[in-house]
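Encode chain A's predicted structure.
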Amino acid sequence: MEMTDKWAYALGDEEDYNGVFFDSKEAAMEEARDDARQQGFQTVWVGQVQSFQPVVMIADELFDRLQDQAYDEAGDYCIGWLDHVTKEDQDELNDAIETVFFAWLKAHPEYKPNFFTIADSQSYKVGDEK
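Encoded structure for chain A:
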């Protein structure tokens, strides 16, 4: 997860963050207190939003699968293929795959992660001015 500059709030229960994000903790707190008063909640939770950022590090797994495929086709003749790929070359492949993945994700926004976690969640009583 990656920390963002966004803030969110939950009413009554720390688990009920609603996905509405604010540009500051103060803005989230103000909206939370107003909402809590209207709905009769005594406690609000405010925390910083963390978003999921995929990390594409799959070259090693890809090599294993390709080696398995090669073995199924060619048997022992393929032993050793892709066993000595350097870290630099593997990183180059991971970077290329990551670039393609994020381009694909941009072209298909329906598959973008729409979930988040909250860091440093703190509870406040409605009426506290902290």
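The longest helix spans residues 87-107.
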